[in-house]
Amino acid sequence: MKKKLAIAMMLLFASSPSWAQPAATMPAAAAEPEVPRDPLGRDTPRGALLGFMRVSREGNFEAAPEYLNTTLQGLPAQELARQLYVVLDKRLPARLDELSDRPEGRLSNPLRPDEDVVATITTSTGNLNIVIERVQRAGETAIWLFSSRTLDAIPQAYGEVNLSSLDRHLPAVLAPRIGGIRLFHWIALLLIFPLVYSGLGALARLSIPVARQVVGLRRLVPTGVSPRRLSGAIRFIVIALVVRWLVATSDLPLLERQFWMAIAVLFTIGAATWLLLHVNASVERYLRNRLQWSGRSDVASLVRVSRWFADALVLLVAVLVVIRRFGGDPTAALAGLGIGGIAVALAAQKTLENVIGGLSLIFDRAVCVGDFLKVGEALGTVDSIGLRSTRIRTLDRTILTVPNGQIANISIETISSRDKYWLRHFLGLRCETTPRQLRAVVAGITRQLSAHPAVDRESARARFLRFGPSSLDVEVVAYLTARDWSHFLEIQEGLLIGMMEIVEQAGTAIAIPSQTLHLADASPLEAVLQPTARRAKEG
User: Fold this and answer.
1) Which is the most buried residue in 48, 283, 309, 477, by most CB within 10 A?
2) Is residue 271 domain-shared with residue 205, that is, in the same domain?
3) Do 315 and 199 share a structural domain?
4) Nearest 5°: CA angle at 502, between 498 and 506?
5) Contact, 144 vs 48, CB < 8 A?
6) Same-domain status, 262 and 372
7) Do the beta carbons of residue 271 and residue 291 sit within 8 Å?
8) Tell me, what's the pLDDT at 8?
9) Rounded distance, CA 227 to CA 220, Å?
10) What is the pLDDT of residues 452-501, one digit of tens each?
11) What is the pLDDT of residue 238?
């Protein structure tokens, strides 16, 4: 019985039921399958429109009906697709970047979330909305198709569309396409437009003198900007406006109208950039002139660098506008510029430190051109202040270039900026000077300092200070007002000569350092002199 029970238990565990298996061996839940994308690109309104225009432009009208929400089949469906393509190719606005590229559409009309208006074209019976609607078929993903309501109005709109006179009279030699654009468009861009630009320039050169005399053109143009320089940007704007007008009034194919609209946009952005660069140059010249008149010539380098930054900002904005206008994402470009800026900042750390130091020197005016200062152990006059370094003309007439980062971190003694000069001398009188003579000298020096116009009376003093080793020392202290160091030396010279006269009038004299030797016993001296005297007598 026990053997049978043991065999039964072994069979039970060997069967390994699902509840007895470890959790790690449980199969993982299957991932949800991704929604397959439509092979014809009909997942979004933009994809449906561009896909239809692409296959129709290639002449594949067998696949074109796949973009139509119609019950027609075969040749009738292909003819309807061809008529729709002709209407769109001739009347569809050239700008298509506003179309939604999301599966749910723009959702501009909450009452009809499954419809998206691609464009509105003008017909004899009124405006016709080109509508793309989202269709959900059984067992298939939702796709965007041209609505049946729009397709019903296409035959009538097609009857109103005629070939333009340009197409009727276009020679066959100009019909070949390069990049989808017919040859005569490239000829117009590369040959006719330069001639038009030159013609407008000649017209501007003739009209500017007349306009300056008649309407005072100089008052209308910013200072420092020549009207001839502005004429180039104005010519680009005129050409862009003419191109936009011609595109709006012509029946050119959609691809060619998009081509010319892109050219007009580039001309407009280029002209605006050109004008802003001229404005930056004009502002720089104006500020430099004002700073020179006000004596702030040291800020001229800062104005020039500010103009460089402004020009770089204008060019950057122009590039971002072009990227955004032609359907790109400027966010990636900005992110790249940010990463590149960090890399440049790390690589040019010392240079940026000097530039920031130069900016602090210019704004704080801690150092100005012409200042006589002491930097470390060097003495000299500031010759120029740049963004990276400051140049100092030393007393040896050499140029000392100091990085601005070092100047911003060390102590600078600006000698030329002091308002007064300190006069401090010790006048040593002979030790034989009597008290009466000493009082006469001190009183005379005090009167001399008080009477001199360059001496600050509150700081002037003359006092008997101490008994020196070989003189009686009188301290003379005063602050002098002088134009510069040379003027101070001139005033000091006159005061010192006057002090000499005061000492002479008092009956004493300036002490000359001297030493007196006292001999206590003469025997050592005689012992030295006797042999010498004996040899002299014998000789």
Assistant:
1) 48
2) yes
3) yes
4) 170
5) yes
6) no
7) no
8) 42
9) 10
10) 999 998 899 999 999 988 899 999 999 999 888 888 899 999 999 999 99
11) 87
The whole-angstrom separation of Cα 145 and Cα 151 is 11
Residue 425 lies in a domain: yes
Tally of structural domains, the chain:
4
Q: How far is CA 476 from the centre of its chain?
A: 58
Model confidence pLDDT, tens digit, residues 323-364: 877 767 777 666 766 776 676 666 556 666 666 666 666 666
Per the confidence metrics, is the pTM higher than 0.70? no
Please give the order of strands across the beta sheet that includes 421-429.
Answer: 421-429, 472-480, 461-467
Q: What pLDDT is recorded for position 446?
A: 93
Q: Which domain holds residue 428?
A: 421-505
Tell me: pLDDT of 319 over 80: yes
Coil, helix or strand at residue 252? coil
| Buried-exposed string 241-280: b where 16+ CB fall within 10 A, e elsewhere | eebbeebeeeebbbbbbbbbbebbbebbbbbbbbbbbbbb
The answer to the question of residue 248 being in a domain is yes
Nearest CA to 99 out of 59, 55, 52 is that of: 52
* Cβ atoms 420, 478 nearer than 8 A: no
Report the candidate in 454, 449, 453, 430 with the shortest Cα–Cα distance to residue 503. Answer: 430
C-alpha to C-alpha distance for 355 and 496, rounded to whole angstroms: 48
Cα distance between residue 12 and residue 6, in whole Å: 10
Token pair listed for 32:
């949800």
Rounded to whole angstroms, how far apart are CA atoms 367 and 358? 10
At which of 290, 316, 346 does a domain end? 346
Q: Which two tokens stand for residue 492?
A: 């000091």
The H-or-E segment that residue 117 falls in is strand 115-123
Position 536 scores a pLDDT of 57
32: in domain: no
- Strands 177-178, 378-385: parallel, antiparallel or unpaired by DSSP? unpaired
> Is 39 domain-assigned?
no
Mark whether 101 and 61 lie in a shared domain. yes
What DSSP string describes 383-421?
Answer: EEE-SSEEEEEETTS-EEEEEHHHHTTS-EEEGGG-SSE
Q: Which of 39, 71, 69 has its CA nearest to residue 55?
A: 39
Residue 365, phi-psi category: left (phi > 0), alpha (psi -120 to 50), beta (remainder):
left
146 in the same domain as 244? no
Assess contact for 158 and 83: CB atoms under 8 A.
Answer: yes
**Residues 206, 341: one domain?**
yes
Chain-wide mean pLDDT for the chain?
76
290 and 190 fall within a common domain: yes
Per-residue buried b or exposed e for 463-494, using 16+ beta carbons within 10 Å of the residue's own CB: ebeeeeeebbbbebebbbebeeeeebeebbee
Work out the angle at residue 180's Cα, subtended by the Cα atoms of residues 176 and 182, and round it to the nearest 5 degrees.
40
Domain boundary among 417, 434, 450: 417
Q: Which residues pair with 116 in a beta bridge?
A: 132
Which CATH number goes with the domain that contains 359? 2.30.30.60
Please tell me whether residues 402 and 468 are part of one structural domain.
Answer: no
Taking alpha carbons only, the member of 419, 414, 439 closest to residue 429 is 439
- Among candidate residues 437, 436, 480, 476, the one with its CA nearest the CA of residue 455: 480
